[in-house]
Batch of 2 targets.
Target 1
Amino acid sequence: MATRDIPNVDGDGAANLPGFQVELARDEPMRLDSGETIGPFTMAYTTSGTLNADKSNAILICHALTGDQYVVESHPLTGKPGWWESMVGPGRPIDTDRFFIICVNVLGGCMGSTGPRDINSETGEPWGLDFPVITIGDMVRAQALLLDHLGIDQLFSAVGGSMGAMQVLEWAAKYPERVFSVVPIAGAARHSAQNIAFHEVGRQAIMADPDWRKGNYLKEGANPKGGLSVARMAAHITYLSETALHRKFGRKLQARDAVSFGFDADFQVESYLRHQGSTFVERFDANSYLYITRAMDYFDLAAEHDGILAGAFEATNVRFCIISFTSDWLFPTEESRDVVRALNAVAANVSFVEIETDKGHDAFLLDEPEFYQTVSGFIEGVAEHRGVGVKPEQSAK
Amino acid sequence: MNVGDGGISANDGGHVLKRRDLEIIAGMIADGSRALDIGCGDGALLDYLVHRKNVDARGIELSQAGVNSCVAHGLSVIQGDADTDLAYYPDHAFDYVVLTRTLQATRNPRDVVSQLVRIGHHAIVSFTNFGHWRVRLRLLTEGRMPVVGDDGYAWHDTPNIHLCTIRDFSLMCEDLGLTVRRAISLSRSGEGRELKSAGAAANLRGEEAIFLLTRE
């Protein structure tokens, strides 16, 4: 490890989180897209593998809406395995024996990076809704500051699914000299009206919970668990497909032989969703959920270029590998294809693969052999081109 | 990198071309140039160009299985359709745009060829020559539609909807105002013959033809 970042105590037990925490923007606050500034702020991150001497083998993994930095190691709160340990690890498509993996909890998150539940030093109380609204651009700007801190000029690659794909595209658009390649998976260059609509349902569920207390629940010792749970349940449906839900649950009843003629969780699918909701609230902050969903809603890479997406990638040298899934109705293939067309319009180096699966948006987190082959082949091709991350047995020759 | 399937050989460190037409096409492409292979199939030509000629080579392939296999082998390939997706590329983005054994399956070959010379400084097009004597003979003696090439499609199941002869293709190029830099006909044994003109003899003897075209 090149750095010895010290756990940053923020009074919320975050000091006990595995991984690293570093305070950034200490000398000069960071500008946000909203026009406000933030700083100093904390970024919590994990690393795996070893950074090579010329710091050319770093891969940034960008997590999704409710993800965090525990991509490989088990989660400190839930004890579950790393959320992408099938993709990232020794001998995996993103091979920690060859690459140095960095995964950062996003700005506005609730796993150690500064977010709305942290203490605002000016008031001595949790930020709540006084926390500035952040964007995908702000998240990436903060990640760039972390790379500065780590002394990494250029990432070998930035890889991410869903909101992670948005960050990865933002990296390519705003810092093309700092990413040699990017792998946006199940993503889009802008959040669609349908997706904004789903997010609004989730936010309204949280804000309708009396325990939300206009965002001041931490100060008032409450927790809008019901609202956040409903938000999660609704969102979770959008991550699956009709086929996958039907295969898993059908109309099967939950621990009973007949319907109850009441409003218990008669059906297995109801029980499953309630479980998803109730476990989620144990590890996620309701205000963070508001802020991060908002960041996704505001994302539109073409907006700064008069609606012409190609303008965001003019003269890019970044190598792109864009991946979508056939049954993903949240970020359908057509969204990825729009990005591909924009990249073709600037003759960028782009690969585009659509993976056949019935598992919906969540397919990027699940075992899909063809998906792994795609990522692994792309990384291999880039490694060959870049001359780094050569397989150990080859370098031994 | 070893690529074991399809037309790519894993021997000799890999990156060997097995198809004679691809060898000839690769010979037309300058080292270190930029090339786009439309209908790149299993990526044999791309693999060769990238590794043997240091070409910045990209591909477009209609079949998703072909695309996924190419990308899994480290090649830059997207899923796309020659008829619809070429319009998104800017003018002269590539030194060479290659279309091998694909023109006959496009809906509008004339537009596709126009796109090739717009996107690339050079276009390389290969196709099966339906003016070959064997094709003519079958139609004449058996009264049946010719079956050509390795795929052996019957008339009712072929994806090849716009078949042409060397002479037909030459006339279309002339009509489009294109310059034929080189034209090569290939015999069944894979023997290449440089065509001075798309004369009657070439149109009879060539099973396959490769044209190098420019707009200039």
Target 2
Amino acid sequence: MIVASRTGQSLLGAAALAIASMPFWASPWHMQLASTALVAALFALSLQVLAGATGLVSLAQAGFFGLGAYTIYLLGSPPIWITLPAAMAVAGVAALLIGPLALRTKGFFFLMSTLAFGQMLFFVFHDTPLGGGTDGQFIQRPAIGFLVSRSARPMVMLLLNLGVLTVVYASLCALMRTALGHALQGIRSNENRMAALGHDVQRLKLIAFVLAGALGGLAGHMSTLTDGFVSPDLLGWHRSAEALLMILLGGIGALHGPILGAFALTAIQEAGSLITDRPKLIEGVVFLLAVVFLRQGLAGLWTRRGPGTPIPRPVMGAESNRDRGGKPAILRAESVSRRFGGLLAVDQVSLTLEQGILHAVIGPNGAGKSTLVNLLSGEIPLTSGRVSLDGRDISADPAWKRGSLGIGRTFQRTNVMRDMTVLENARLAAQARASIGLLRSAATDDLVQTAWIALDRSGLSAMADATAGMLSHGQARLLEIAMAQAGNPSVLLLDEPLAGLGPEESLPVAALLRDLAKDHAVLLIEHDMDVVFAVADIVTVMVNGRVLARGTPAEIRGSADVRDAYLGHGI
Amino acid sequence: MLTGVVAQLLNGVQYGLLLFLISSGLTLIFGVMGVINLAHGSLFMIGAYLAFAVASATGYFWLALPAAVLGGLAFGAALERTLFRRFRTRPHLDQVLLTFALILLFEEARSALLGNAFHSVPIPAALDFSVPVIGGFGYSAYRLVVLAICLATAAAMAWLIERTRIGSAIRAAAENTEMLDLLGLDASRIHTMVFAAGTALAMLAGALAAPLQSVYPGMGDGFLILSFIVVVIGGLGSIAGAFWAALLVGLIDTLGKAYLPQAAGIAVCAMMAAVLLWRPTGLFGRG
């Protein structure tokens, strides 16, 4: 997510000043129009917390907007210092109730279920007498704290809306720089990897959902305060879609995108109704063209997503990563099995991983090696058996929980946050386990330092500011390892870290593996026998989901069983 | 009292079957192409207006049904070729916005061509009588015919998908979008066919529904929401799931509207919430 550059912020500030000066030169009608655009911007900005920052496309947002609006009506128009927090609270609580249900789904299902939940809120006001009927109600507008004459209302509302939008935008800019903001962007980029790193993805998404809901309620509150009108249509899903259009029009990749989009949309609608009696037709055509051709939105016309702002390297103390202080870690798998339909992919496998020991698992394709890693890391649930870490049973813990307890892993196919920089990837890995507050800056020295140490150790420091998606295959493999260790885990599960590397590339990685085994319990899945026999302390041979043999590299090399069953020829 | 309940049950089944025609297209289009089509409800609306236009121009309502099917096939194929295929690999957000823009354009086109008035389409005279069902109470013959047409369509779809070569290609594609290429089938033709069929089904449903309710602007909206709920409850890409879920939603919505009008809309959404809690991938969904 791009937060506008200094120049961009200055331009936004200048626009805000221009709006603030409207009472000196503009008509009440124009001020009213500007208020409409400001409220629309606030609403779209609330949805950007989900759509742009977290990558969740929700169609329930208008429901929260409407709840905020109806709060004024339901409370009987008390003064604003009561209605404003009440509107945010009502919408936030509704989001807290709906969020856990809707967030059980992903992608297409999330979209559909948010649409249905949004409509459910719509029905509450449309079908029941609660909201005063299907046609809506004009309401007594709450007092704003000082005496406001009728004629001064457009001016006061303009300044109030501008103030609220400014405060919300500035707060969200700050939020994007916190650990929470970075974690949300990590989820947008690669949710599964964030979970594997140990981030509680569901909780983070719920936080975003509730925050967006409360801000949506705030927008609805400001809308009704401005217009003095509520109707069930405020909650209709068309409004959510319209907010998404504003975001797309302005730029989904930029925090200020929704503001640009809201003003652009208001301008298009006004222009449309001036030049034709079918403004919706103009709107539809503009949207169609925008969605087909304008991929990055208006913000994308003059900002390019370069690599993130380089973060200066902090002055470092000793390599603090290595010293965990506790006793050596032990991961134990006891008779773990996993069945896929009729196939027993992993059958009663037991193994122990200890700090200081590099335990390699080899076997032909389809032997169940990757499934075993996924069972240990919690990516897929056990059919039977038990996994424990330092004596604690973690068999039922999901992947993120195991990640947060100190199990780091790499993936066979490179699995990183592709649109973030190498350092940001490592920092998100470090952040997952460092118990820092979500609202602390993500750029705190200790996190950045941990990330740098991991990059140093993997030999990736020179690439720190490169975008992860641009790395060569070999560098991406190294980033996988760097991320696994940046979380300061006690156990490392490495699923074919050398896959696809040439001989000159694999030598330094093999040395790195040996180095990592000094202070981690390491499980290594690998096909290259030369590497395995060179670096492993213990080798387990798997065939057809079962353990065929286990021993030192010399024993395995000498075993007739293994030769017959697997190694076959040439060794 | 009892006869009233039976009538409402029949209404619920018939409404559910109409919902099935709409949502089976929605679920197939998503399953095979990975495209979310919010304009699917507008296609229903277009089918209803087509029926109104054909019936009032010619006086023969029945002509509207082949017109809706053939028009739907052509319209759907054109939409897929010009717009939707470009959006297969685009993010969900882009698909949502594309299809929302289409809703605006379809509604405007409808407004420009046929105006914004409410219309009613008379039930064809040949079927404008009651058929005695259980206990001597009468039920609209037209509604029974709609029920039969929907069931026949569902059976034809089941046969097509389970028993034919093209059906197995569609199942393969719904399982895994890349599968078609691997099997050496012409994915692009199958996408066009599926989208055209989905469009035709939605427009047929609209035409069939026209004599049962008024024809009015935005009438597709309620059906869109309900068919989304059907797809969520039934499970993505599952025709059988769409069938049973559509019946369930149709019954709950109809009975709710008859006996507890304030809570009907909420009840359907609450049922979806319950299914999500219990089985996030839907009743017939994979995984």
